[in-house]
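Fig. S4 source data, part A: sequence.
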Amino acid sequence: MEEIKKTDVKAALERVLEASKMRFKTANQWYTKAGLTESTGRSAFGGNPTVKTLEKLAEAAGLSLAEMLEYGDPDWQQKRRARAFVASMTDEEAAALARLLERRAARDSSVS
């Protein structure tokens, strides 16, 4: 059985803050822009945020929640480009891509 990797929320927040130094000089500036109290912001950086808190922080940073949590992963930029590419597709193009990927997965599973 494949192990599911747990997101390190605290590390993700710290990586986003580091990458956003032009926008936010401190974590406190980030939580203020997100409309959070200092105690809520500190709790998030302590590794104990709610989903609503994470959504507000992501929005203030100009990221989706998924992007923020993936931020700093080795393939983060590749994932962001892929999401933007899929978002730009028409419904027909997305359906065609889904069919292609399903055929490839079926082929690959029959080979192994």
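Fig. S4 source data, part B ends here. The mean pLDDT is 85.
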